[in-house]
Amino acid sequence: MRAHRSGRNTAVLLLLVASILWGTTGTAAAQATGVSPLAIAAVSLGVGGLLQALVGVRAIRRARPVLIRERRILMVGGVAVFCYPLAFYSAMSLGGVTLGTVISLGTAPLAAGLLERMVDGTRLTGRWYLAAALGIGGSTLLGIARAEGGGGRAVLASCLLGLLAGASYAVYSWASGRLMFAGAPRAASMGSVFGLGGLLLLPVLLVTGAPLLGSAQNLAVAAYLALIPMFLGYLLFGKALTKVKASTATTVTLSEPAVAAALAMGLLGERLGIAGWLGLGLIAAALAVLLLPESRERSVNRVPEQVAAQ
Questions:
Q1: Between the CA of residue 254 and those of 38, 115, 134, 187, 290, what are the distances in Å?
Q2: Does residue 81 have a pLDDT over 90?
Q3: Among 19, 264, 22, which Cα is nearest to 149's?
Q4: What is the pTM of this model?
Q5: CA–CA separation, 237 vs 169, rounded Å?
Q6: Fewer CB in 10 Å around end: N or C, the chain?
Q7: What is the 3-state secondary structure (H, E, C) of the chain?
Q8: Within 13 Å and on the Cβ side, how many CA atoms surround 58?
Q9: What is the C-alpha to C-alpha distance for residues 111 and 301, in angstroms, rounded to an integer?
């Protein structure tokens, strides 16, 4: 029990570090000039995804029988990786860093929980419901605080794209976890899902990516996004997925909107009122609930220890 609890808490800490890295993406992307959100999306997860595949190439080869057997899940995960950054960066471009991040990440835990419940038959725990409610409530307050300035159609479009991003995030988290559960090592699961998504994003990069080479600053932004938040962040995320369910992982990463909001306020001039600060407090409370010592928690989607060790 102690070993399981220690492993789970380590996973939560890894997810927190990944969330902090991801929280920098909106502010970093805003430093590029004359670059469309589609280009930013394609270079971040396109290049980052291919790097994931490169690092895991040996594991992918060894896990080939599993990946072929579970090819439908692999395809679903790859398409979700393709959709996620396009929707995510477009949402931030239209509604601001805080609103786009909040909607995208705030809806992910709900989508992940529903996906596990409907597809895998996972029985969600009271702890998850409480943490998800606190996190989604906090994210909603953050979003309200950002949307008070108006924006009309842009805000609505940002919210819709954020919903698509949140659902995509939940789907590829679930798909990666299911491949691990089926017997694929972590490196093979993450590498294959993100590698496929990266391949799908390459045509978008070829069509929209020319401005990324227009200045040293744009090139530096592209390199940072691909290597740090997307490559390193998702390495940590994949390692954590061997210890916790996708629904728990997406709930922990609700800390990303808090990081994104803090950076947007400090560096981009976005402002939050009382509602926004209350939202940050609720997100902190959600993380505290997840870190509390757990009692008996049932899950049919737990990755076997022999898979986690690979």
A1: 24, 18, 10, 24, 12
A2: yes
A3: 264
A4: 0.80
A5: 12
A6: N
A7: CHHHHHHHHHHHHHHHHHHHHHHCHHHHHCCCCCCCHHHHHHHHHHHHHHHHHHHCHHHHHHCHHHHHHCHHHHHHHHHHHHHHHHHHHHHHHHHCHHHHHHHHHHHHHHHHHHHHHHHHCCCCCHHHHHHHHHHHHHHHHHHHHHHCCCCCHHHHHHHHHHHHHHHHHHHHHHHHHHHHHCCCCHHHHHHHHHHHHHHHHHHHHHHHCHHHHCCHHHHHHHHHHHHHHHHHHHHHHHHHHCCCCHHHHHHHCCHHHHHHHHHHHHHCCCCCCHHHHHHHHHHHHHHHHHHCCCCCCCCCCCCCHHHHCC
A8: 2
A9: 16
Q: Let me know: does 112 contact 170? Beta carbons within 8 Å.
A: yes
Tell me the pLDDT tens digit for each residue of 228-259: 998 998 888 888 877 777 767 777 777 787 78
* Nearest-10 Cα torsion for 195, 28, 159, 15: 60
Place of tokens 């960066």: 89
